[in-house]
Design brief:
heterodimer; A: 520 residues; mainly alpha; Arc Repressor Mutant, subunit A; 3 domains; three-stranded antiparallel beta sheet; 26 helices; B: 455 residues; 2% strand
């Protein structure tokens, strides 16, 4: 482990490198947790330069790493970066740290530590903000902000291709000034740590199948431990000893008035003072909608929505508002390609729609079908089909999704790509995820069925490409260069067994790597 | 005493698991309508244990090791409580409750499991496990139905992040799967020599779990069982050494699991085995197997069921015949209509997706007609005449027009027809190639243009 300490991390101990002398007789006042803290620890050391704390940090890190003497200017630079007065609103500590780390690592790797003018180098937070402004200035991004957030209308207000095909769940930020007070107080735990991507994995499976997939395994595992005590007590089917009390005692009535709150996975019954009542949640949703429009910060918004959902659940609020919260979160997740979170919302929505609470059931039933096409979950697809009522099937979005499914089932790529170019609502975000896969399938078929060649124009038109260049690029990316030839004034794709094999292989690849649950 | 004790005595005396299991069957029979009542009223809670000890062993003259005796007493004590709950139904008591029956029966199951894992019950008594498991499932379903009718607000425990967990609806059946799962492990992991091993019960318990998972719509969990079985396969006896009834059901479920994953070739293999082994007169089971075997066959071999095969199964005949007829004559419009007419039923039985693929066969048959209608080239030098193998795409387009019952105004998209042709060629249903520039399909010569159909 000691060998692997990256240079930037060494800064932690640098200011007090001599302190390592104490390490032998100093009381081991450190914990492994601190040791893993990387630059976060560095900050504690520097910004709170009491001797005691410096000892602590150095005793833990110094013995375990090679000595790297950081030049004085670098250390001062780090110090300045963390100084509270240099803090920039809207730039996250985590972001700043990442930037800082990158800057120092780069300098160390290029042996530039001594050459850079550290005193005049912009602070990392400034760099972060500059980068953001650059992105802002680029037109493809800033146009997002122009159209209506959560209304399902399609916008054609500007000529961007991206825009014309898809509806955005929401839009975008004007300025990066969204750092709310609660975050400042809470920044010790980098908030990314709490975004529970890992646990969504488990939860999602639960949602999808009603029970955890690994239940049988868990069951067997539990069984192993249970055998000995089985003789003196039954309790056979109570799973584990997780804290079940307090649960089921009825809904909490929240008293919290804060609009924003970050998400914690509950491990005990929620306290009313941390739960927001419905009328506050209404305001919260408005704030979140605005923030998403303004900042487009997905990590933040996802976290907020999760806590919003949690507050609804613990208070047993199940109404139209609940539906709209899930719908909005689902749309945002869809736009960001976060299929894990999207699938959670979708599963919830399915249950909510079953209770006739309003919302946009057909829109989401259509997504659900497209989603199962993407994950190729035929068992679930069958369930999705079984859910549809005759009225649903008449809905344009549902009908579209059903047609997509049937076109694919029959390999009718012609029909499939016609449907692709005419996708209602936000379905295009989902279709984009499997359209390349289907292009490869279609090319494999075309190469086997046509002889001796087909014009590139034909490929472009049949497979829904936007230009001949795009389709040529796609072909080259997945096969060999000599498959494209120029004959009689037009570029052609040379078909036949060899081309067929190349696309067949590419198709097999593309089908293999589909991540079953669509996690990001 | 009541016949429950006699059945127990017979079982123990004969060493017959099935007789023993009969004792644990919680029903009153037509021959003995008071069976459960007389069992329940033979004792009371205070004296139960000693009464059971007397009636099961001393009165019957059966001697078992002390530990085993105690296990049976515990099992029958739990059984006695469950019988009490069931008797309430027989007496139409207002306190009758399936939830209570389920809970009491679950306790019986747990006592039984404990008896096997630590209480020294012998492996030959394993049919008791089947019977108890089977009724556990039944009672769970009745309990769930009862709970559903009582309406709860549908919120899970307070720690869920999300509003609806979907678990409540089948809470008791979920509970039952956990017990059944323990039964499964109990059988699978027994390390005694195979002659006296509980391993013989592994397929029956697997089947019970399969059945429950299907009911719960968590078919995915079945794969864990298959994985566990696979991992143990070296220590398990050959399949054909097991009772046929276990294997037929097992094969059926494995077949359907593959079927749902669209592994039709494997599904067909398992289903065909089940079909072969299934008892002649088990009409319901045979019908179930065929329900899945027919679509498998359609996908893998492109063949349709004969009238003779379906004759004993009027329901299947009704389900499949309209589709089969349309496929046979290449009637695309009729096929689509038959699919949407039967959609609800097909989706319910989970056969919609594979049946849909029958459209390719219908299309193949339609295009085959085009080829045949094309006639023969002029023969040269007395050679046998050969069919015209160069067919304009337009002729196929015309066929699609007829096949889909297109009216005057509707336009058939030539590109789509080409796409259909390209698909058939790609899937090997048709041999040849499309020359796009010339708008011509060049079919293979020598009777292989439509493989397997004679032309």
């Amino acid at each position: 482990m000691s060998a692997g300490i990256p240079p930037w991390r060494a800064t932690a101990a640098a200011p007090t490198a001599t302190a390592s002398l104490y390490s032998s007789h100093a009381t081991p006042a450190y914990t492994p947790v601190q040791a893993r803290r990387s630059i976060t620890t560095a900050k504690t050391t520097i910004s709170a330069p009491t001797p005691a704390s410096s000892h602590q940090t150095s005793t833990e890190t110094a013995p375990r790493k090679q000595r790297v003497e950081w030049p004085e200017p670098v250390r001062l630079y780090v110090q300045r970066s963390f100084a509270p007065e240099n803090r920039l609103a809207g730039v996250e500590r985590g972001e700043m740290e990442t930037k800082l780390r990158a800057v120092i690592t780069e300098a160390a790797e290029n042996n530039m530590l001594d050459k850079i003018d550290w005193t005049n180098l912009p602070l990392p937070q400034v760099m972060v903000q500059n980068d953001r402004n650059k992105i802002l200035a680029s037109p493809s991004v800033s146009t997002w902000g122009t159209f209506g957030a959560l209304s399902p209308k399609k916008s054609n207000s500007n000529g961007l291709e991206d825009v014309s095909k898809k509806r955005k769940s929401v839009e975008y930020q004007g300025d990066a000034n969204g750092c709310p007070p609660w975050r400042k107080t809470n920044n010790h735990n980098a908030f990314e740590d709490r975004v529970t991507y890992a646990s969504t994995d488990k939860r999602q499976r639960i949602d999808l199948k009603n029970t955890s997939k690994s239940k049988a395994n868990l069951e067997m595992r539990r069984k192993r431990f249970e055998e000995p005590q089985a003789s003196n007590g039954s309790s056979a089917s109570s799973r584990g000893t997780s804290p079940v009390p307090a649960a089921n005692t009825g809904p909490v009535v929240g008293t919290c008035q804060e609009l924003e709150k970050n998400y914690f996975r509950l491990t005990a019954a929620p306290k009313p003072e941390t739960v927001r009542p419905l009328h506050v949640l209404h305001k919260t949703l408005d704030v979140l909608k605005k923030k998403w429009k303004k900042d487009n910060n997905y990590t933040y918004i996802c976290d907020q929505f999760k806590s919003l959902r949690q507050d609804l659940t613990v208070q047993h609020i199940k109404n139209e508002f609940t539906v709209s919260v899930y719908e909005i979160h689902a749309r945002i997740a869809l736009e960001k390609g976060d299929l894990g979170e999207y699938n959670q919302c979708q599963t919830q929505l399915r249950a909510l729609y079953a209770q006739q609470l309003g919302g946009h059931p057909t829109e989401f039933r259509a997504y659900r079908i497209l989603y199962f096409i993407h994950t190729r979950n035929w068992t679930a697809m069958n369930d999705a089909l079984a859910d549809l009522t005759p009225a649903d099937k008449r809905d344009p979005a549902v009908k579209h999704a059903l047609d997509v499914r049937s076109a694919l089932a029959l390999g009718n790529y012609h029909r499939f790509f016609q449907l692709y170019l005419d996708t209602p609502n936000m379905g295009a975000y989902l279709m984009d995820m499997f359209v390349d896969r289907e292009r490869l399938s279609a090319l494999a078929a075309i190469c086997k069925a046509y002889k001796p060649d087909v014009k590139i124009r034909f490929v472009t038109e049949e497979l829904g490409f936007e230009s001949d260049e795009q389709s040529a690029r796609f072909i080259l990316d997945h096969s060999a260069e000599d498959l494209l030839q120029e004959k009689e004034g037009s570029v052609r794709l040379v078909t036949g067994p060899r081309a067929g094999q190349l696309f067949e292989a590419a198709k097999a690849d593309a089908h293999r790597i589909v991540d079953i649950k669509g996690q990001i | 005493m009541g016949s429950i004790f006699e059945e127990f005595k017979d079982g123990q005396k004969l060493g017959s698991g099935h007789h023993l299991a009969a004792a644990l069957t919680p029903v009153s029979t037509a021959a003995n309508p008071g069976r459960l009542q007389s069992f329940y009223y033979f004792s009371n809670a205070a004296r139960l244990s000693s009464d059971l000890r007397y009636s099961l062993f001393q009165a019957n003259g059966i001697r078992l090791p002390k530990q085993e005796q105690n296990s049976w007493v515990d099992i029958f004590a739990a059984y006695w409580s469950a019988a009490g709950e069931l008797v309430r139904f027989e007496e139409a008591s207002s306190r009758a409750s399936w939830v209570k029956v389920f809970n009491a029966w679950k306790e019986t199951a747990n006592q039984l499991i404990r008896g096997y894992s630590t209480g020294g019950l012998q492996a030959w008594t394993i049919p008791c496990l089947y019977v108890v498991g089977r009724y556990l499932r039944q009672f769970a379903r009745k309990a769930d139905a009862e709970l559903a009718s009582q309406e709860s607000d549908g919120f899970g425990d307070g720690f869920q992040d999300d509003v609806a967990t979907g678990l409540e609806k089948n809470a008791k059946l979920e509970e039952a799967t956990r017990v059944l799962n323990r039964m499964f492990t109990l059988c699978l992991t027994d390390r005694s020599p195979i002659e006296e091993s509980r391993k013989w019960g592994v397929y029956d318990t697997t089947n019970l779990l399969f059945k429950t998972y299907f009911k719960l719509n968590t078919v995915g969990l079945s794969k864990n069982l298959l994985r566990a079985l696979n991992a143990q396969s070296a220590d398990l006896p050959e399949l054909d050494a097991f009772p046929k009834s276990h294997i037929v059901t097992f094969k059926y479920y494995v077949g359907v699991i593959h079927f749902l994953d669209e592994n039709y070739a494997e599904a067909e293999q398992h289903l065909a085995e089940a079909w072969r082994m299934c008892h002649r007169s088990a009409m319901k089971n045979r019908e179930l197997i065929l329900t899945y075997l027919i679509p498998c066959h359609l996908v893998t071999t492109h063949t349709l069921p004969s009238k003779k095969l379906l004759a004993p199964f009027p329901r299947l005949e009704k389900l499949y015949r309209p589709l089969c007829n349309c496929i046979k004559i290449g009637d695309l419009g009729g096929f689509d209509a038959a699919m949407s007419a039967g959609e609800e039923e097909f989706v319910k039985r989970r056969i919609y997706l594979p049946l849909e693929r029958g459209r390719d066969i219908a299309l193949r048959n339609l295009f085959r007609k085009v080829f045949i209608a094309g006639g023969f080239e002029e023969s040269k030098d007395g050679q046998p005449p050969i069919r015209r193998t160069r067919v304009p795409v337009a002729e196929f387009a015309a066929a699609v027009r007829i096949g889909t019952h297109a009216d005057e105004r509707s336009r058939v998209d030539i590109d789509e027809v080409e796409c259909l042709l390209s698909n058939l060629i790609y899937k090997g249903l048709m041999k040849g190639y499309i020359a796009r520039e010339r708008g011509m399909v060049v079919l293979s010569k020598g009777g292989s243009a439509f493989p397997g159909t004679g032309v």
